[in-house]
Specification:
By secondary structure, this protein is an alpha/beta fold. The protein has two domains: 204 residues, 3-Layer(aba) Sandwich (Rossmann fold); 247 residues, Ribokinase (UDP-N-acetylmuramoyl-L-alanine:D-glutamate ligase). Helix content is 35%, strand content 16%. It contains 15 helices and 18 strands. The radius of gyration is 25 Å and the shape is elongated. It binds ligand NAX, adenosine-5'-diphosphate and potassium ion. The site of adenosine-5'-diphosphate has 17 residues, from α13.
Amino acid sequence: MQNIYYEVGSLDKRCYEQFALSEDLLMEHAALALEKEITKTFDKNSSVLIVSGMGNNGADGIALARLLYKTYDVKLYIPFELKSPMAKLQLKRAQLLGVNLINELQECDIVVDSLFGSGLKRDLNEASQKIIETLNSYNSYKIACDIPTGIDFKGDISTLAFFADVTVTMGALKTSLFTDTAKDYVGEIVVANLGVQREVYETKTDLFLLEKEDLKLPLRDKKNAHKGTFGHLNVVIGSKKGAGVIAAKAAFGFGAGLVSVICHECVDLPYHIMQTHNLSENCTAIALGMGLGIYDEKEIENILQSKLPTIIDADLFYEDIIKIALQKEVVLTPHPKEFCALLNVCELADIKVKELQKNRFKYVEMFCKKYPKVVLLLKGANVLIAQNEKIFVNTFGSAVLSKGGSGDVLGGLVGSLLAQGYKPLDAAISASLAHAIAASNYKKNNYSLIPSDLVEEVKRL
Ligand SMILES: NC(=O)C1=CN([C@@H]2O[C@H](COP(=O)(O)OP(=O)(O)OC[C@H]3O[C@@H](n4cnc5c(N)ncnc54)[C@H](O)[C@@H]3O)[C@@H](O)[C@H]2O)[C@@H](O)CC1
Ligand SMILES: Nc1ncnc2c1ncn2[C@@H]1O[C@H](COP(=O)(O)OP(=O)(O)O)[C@@H](O)[C@H]1O
Ligand SMILES: [K+]
C-alpha cells in the first residue's frame, strides 16, 4: 500500500528546512517528472500545449516548456499575469532560450494542464472555465500537473475540471485525488519524486492507498483439514430474501467451509447452503442486515449481542438497535445514504448524501473517533475502509458494480473471511479488494454483470 496525505505543503517545508533543498530544485524535479511522462510515450516533434496559470503550478508547466524546447513542438499558453516569483523566473529562463508564447489555444498531441494546482481557491472564473472546457474538448493525451485544474484541496469540484488521462502529482498522494467526485477526472496517478525518494519525503500517516498486493486470498495451506477448519458463516435472511441468499452464495464461493442462512420461512437455496432457525452451534461469524426489512427485535438484539465476528449491512443502519454492536469490532458496510442514516442514529451528524460525499474522509474520521473498535467500510466509487485512526482507500471498483446485489455480494465476502478467522479489518480490506478486482476482471462489457457473475469472478481470483 502507498501513503496518502491531506496536504503535502508541510512535507515540502520539511525538504527545505531539514534537507536544505530549494524550491527551485523541487520544481525542477516536478518538471522532469512531467517531461518523463511525455518522452516515455511520445516521439520527438510531437506537439505539446502547456497551459500555465499564475502560481507555482503554472511555474511547473513553464519549466516543462524549457525542458522540452527544441525536441518537442512546444506551445506555451499563459492566460493570466504571472504572480508567483518562481513562475516569473521560469518564464524568464524559458524566454532566454527562445520559447515563444502563443496567444490562443491550439489542439496538440499532448495537453499539459498547469493552470491551477494545490493553490486553487474560490470557483474558477469564467475565463478559466472556458479554457478547461476547450482543453476537455480536445482529443489530445491529457496530463494534469499535480491535480486536474478545478479539483479543490478537498477533492470537490465547484464548476468544472480538467479530464486528465494521467495526473502527475508532486511528492506524494493526496486525499483530494481520491474522492468519488475526483475519480472521473484524475486518470492514472503517477507520483513525482521531488529530489529525494518518497521514503525520505514522506512522513508517518494514517491514510493509505490499497494495492493489488494487499489482497490476501483465503488460499488453504493446511492439508489436514475438514470443512469445519474453514469456518461456518450464518447469514440472517430478512424479508427481501434474495439479498441474504446472494451473500450466502458469495460467502461459500470465497472459502467459508459451511454457510447457513437463518430464516423462519422456506427459502429456495442451492443444495450446499443450509437453513437454520437459530445461530448454528459451530457458527464462527454472522452476516446480517442485507434485505432485512421488518424484523423480530428480540431475535436481532440477541444476534447483535453475540461475541462472534459480525458484518452488518443495509437496513440496520437506520435502526437504533445497531448501537448495541458499536462497542465491538464489528464490520459495517454502509453505502453513502445508509452512512448518513447511521451518523444520525449515532447523533454524530444530520447530513444529506451530498454533504457526505464532499467530506467522506471527515465523516469517516468522525465516526471512527467515537467508535474506535468498529471497522467501517464506506461504499462508493472509491471505498474507504477505516478503523480507529487508520483509513484505507480502495480505488479498484468501477461502474460495473453499480447494480442491485453488488453490496450483498460484498457483505457475503466479508462474512466469509470473518468466518475463516481473518481479523475484522483484514477481512474488510481483502473482501473489498476481491470484490472490486473481480468486477474489473469481468470482460464482457461494463453493464451486464449480475451478482452470480461477480461470485464467479471472485472464484477465479
Ligand atoms: N514546494 C512547492 O511549493 C512546490 C510546488 N509545486 C507546484 O506548485 C503548486 C502550488 O502552487 P501555488 O501555491 O502557487 O498554487 P497554484 O499555482 O495552484 O495557484 C495559486 C494562484 O492562483 C490564484 N488562484 C487560486 N484560485 C483561483 C481562482 N479560482 N481563480 C483565479 N485565481 C486563483 C491564487 O491567488 C494564486 O496566485 C502545486 O500544485 C505544484 O504543482 C511543485 O513545483 C513542487 C514544489
Ligand atoms: N461506480 C462505482 N465504482 C466503484 N464501485 C462501485 C460503483 N458503484 C457501485 N460500486 C460498489 O458496488 C457495491 C454496491 O453496494 P450497495 O449500494 O449496497 O448495493 P446493493 O445493496 O444493491 O447490493 C458497493 O461495494 C460499491 O462500492
Ligand atoms: K493542474
